[in-house]
């Protein structure tokens, strides 16, 4: 799904390490784009951002690169589908790079999340039962007829009723046909002025179920206007001067426009129908639909922002736009009907309203505070500048966001959610809600029993040990007086050697060689096993241990990894050759895209090997045939398909050059403890991979999907 999101950064070697700020850049631009002043990422480029259907971030809680390579074979889908892989530089607070440092995640930003702020989590069924929406409608989704007001409800809420004393001269819409769940919805809103008669209509808007405006007209009041209420209505004396349309004209138009089974939707629609002096039998009132306790009602402006992510009735505009209000009421009703009461209750609108009011109070206090009256900072205290919350940016621009997870989000102001929520439940919710959201964060976890720091250390040691074995080969037997220098030279043609030692415990001498890159060790096994070296016909093999029994399978899967597609490894280069020399030597190779010349990360010196990335896989195959045996500056080149992508090569180097602080006896004490549960862990990882596969396949075309292994820190 990369058609609209092409990462144009180089994807080999040092370029495979990025910071959380760089990740933040990518996600911000993908979600907001130029229209909201977000800049292209500095390290890659997204083409056709406006075509992106959405952004999905999958967070694998407290899992790291160690887990990915320890369970590489289990992550079958993950490693085959995701084409770009990067190492994240460790950060003190991973989630802060998304939510903004020092910023509590406001509840409205995770409207449909499984996690929550405060002491209560909105997903608990016991909490939902207390919600006035659930008490009124139940939890199940129903058709629109379940939400139309009954005759008693209309009487109670001052709707014009046929035969009522105050509605003697009111006009009926004559929409008397039986309503069904497929009856058409129409949004209606009016603006009124104050006359001697009371409230009289000055403007009427009607929209259909698709939000298209059918009617938007100014109306001349019958009596002299006492107050135009311009601040709310947007209507002025000047606007009404040329108007000829009267209330009777509007009544006639509405009667003609509305089909016999029409359902009118509005916010406090009783006031609009009273001003229109019309009777309509079937209405949905969004001020009552989104029920509150003690007869209170949410304002339309708040509901539009909290539920739809839309800003209406903006202060910059003169008055309300009745078409905008009619459309907002209609969409709110459609959202309620489509999502059902349970989903609406999970929005926790009361908490959102409280948070909004607190934010307003806080802003007002800040505005009223005189300059120089703030708390004095100590001279040595650095000023704290908090980043704008990423999800705040999305919310302000009307983007629908979704956060699903069960733990580990508390550092961003989210509470620790219900631990009983399973990955399967999170997946089910994600399959339903991700397609409805612009930006989603979905968090899966292995469970608390598998993420303890000491178990992570054991996993690290197992991965380090296995990689070391894969980098190591044994060669021999040699004659007693063999030339070690010629052996080192021959094996050095396969790639950079980390260490070479002579094994003397055997009847005849062998050598143990540890390489710096996986490709070098594999090339030595493939090209020198059975060859004559230093006057002896030798056998070349890797160490035989229980952990190495699946080495051949792992090598094959690494070779087929999408990151290694079109990438070949070339060894036997003279260290005096520069990158420019190599570019010139390989310029005749078709479709060559990138040349990466590894270097010692301490000394900065180039190694005697390089990686070549081609635009097409077939070009890489052709290059392999051409390069093997190629003589460059007196050196014969050897090549094979790449095994370790850039970030893995860098990681292997760091592993080889790091001195662990913990003694090996500590690891061995824990090894037994982990071995019993590792089989279960493999099953869990396999299931996790399957969840990601299902989620990925459900995404709309042109969705940017990022999977994160944030690690313990």
UniProtKB/TrEMBL annotation:
- A molecular function GO annotation: exonuclease activity
All residue ranges annotated as the RRM domain in the record = 471-545, 566-644
Q: Which Gene3D superfamilies match?
A: 3.30.70.330, Ribonuclease H-like superfamily/Ribonuclease H
Q: What SMART domains does the annotation carry?
A: EXOIII, RRM
The keyword rRNA processing is annotated on this UniProt entry: no
Q: Do you know which InterPro entries this protein is assigned to?
A: Nucleotide-bd_a/b_plait_sf (IPR012677), RBD_domain_sf (IPR035979), REX1-like_exo (IPR034922), REXO1/3/4-like (IPR047021), Ribonucl_H (IPR013520), RNaseH-like_sf (IPR012337), RNaseH_sf (IPR036397), RRM_dom (IPR000504)
UniProt KW keywords: Exonuclease, Hydrolase, Nuclease, RNA-binding
Which PANTHER family does the annotation name? Answer: RNA EXONUCLEASE 5, RNA EXONUCLEASE REXO1 / RECO3 FAMILY MEMBER-RELATED
Q: Which domain of life is it from?
A: Eukaryota
- Please state the gene responsible for encoding this protein: Rexo5
Per its record, how is this protein called by name?
REXO5 exonuclease
The cellular component terms of Gene Ontology attached to this UniProt record, alphabetical and capped at eight, are: nucleus
- A single Pfam family it belongs to is RRM_1
